[in-house]
Amino acid sequence: MATVNLTAHAFMETIHRDGIVLVDWWASWCGPCRMFAPVYERASQAHDDIVFAKVDTEAEQSLSAQAGITSIPTLMAFRDGIGVFAQPGALPPAALEQVIAAVRDLDMDQVRAQLAEQEKQSA
């Protein structure tokens, strides 16, 4: 599957899907972003069960601010509508594959239980 360009309009709907959604926050002027782009594209072709999305931080400045993006590229991972990973920096292919494997291996029942416990403690 090719990467999907996300706008503010489609962002929430996309990340709240069941399954895994990866989001690459980038800009055309960013050297590390351009370096990471082909790595991300190849991974999107190898994992057709995952949504690989990209957000152009220049075109979507308000969305980028809402997401707390302060450095690009930043990779975020969502699983079943829950943010489970966020890290700035261009990842080499092996590291991206490790992130994908880790997100796949998550016990989402345990993740939900941890989130519920955190919400209970902060209330």
Automatic annotation (TrEMBL):
Alphabetized CDD domains for the sequence: TRX_family
PROSITE patterns: THIOREDOXIN_2 (PS51352)
Domain Thioredoxin residues, every copy: 1-105
Lineage: Bacteria, Bacillati, Actinomycetota, Actinomycetes, Micrococcales
UniProt-recorded name of the protein: Thioredoxin
Disulfide bonds: 30-33
Keyword Disulfide bond (UniProt): yes
Signal peptide (residue range): none
Site residues (Deprotonates C-terminal active site Cys), renumbered to this chain: 24
Positions marked as site (Contributes to redox potential value): 31-32
InterPro entries the record matches: Thioredoxin, Thioredoxin-like_sf, Thioredoxin_domain
Keyword Electron transport among UniProt keywords: yes
Keywords: Disulfide bond, Electron transport, Redox-active center, Transport
GO molecular function terms attached to this record: protein-disulfide reductase activity
Family to which the UniProt record says this protein belongs: Belongs to the thioredoxin family.
Residues at the active site: 30 (nucleophile), 33 (nucleophile)
Species whose genome carries this gene: Knoellia remsis
Gene Ontology CC annotation, any one: cytosol
